[in-house]
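**User:**
Make up any protein.

**Assistant:**
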Amino acid sequence: MRIVRSPAGEVAIDPGGRAAGRGAYVCRTAECIDKATKKGALTRALSTPLPANLREALAAGIADPTNANEGGARGQE
C-alpha cells in the first residue's frame, strides 16, 4: 500500500499508486503498519508527521478483506 504526501503537503493513502508527491510503501499487515507508525518510519519517509485521521484509516484498512490485493498481478506467477 502506498502513502503519499502531495506537493500541497497533504498526507493520504494512494489506492492507485500514481498520485503525485513523495510516497512511501508499507505492507498491509497489522504488525507492519503498527511498526511503521510507532517507530516513525512513515514520518521519516514522507518528511512530515502523520495526521491522526490517517493512522485511523490505516488501522481500519487492515480489517477490510477487499484490500488484500497486495502487489497486484506481479508476484503471483
The CA atoms of residues 3 and 24 lie 5 Å apart.
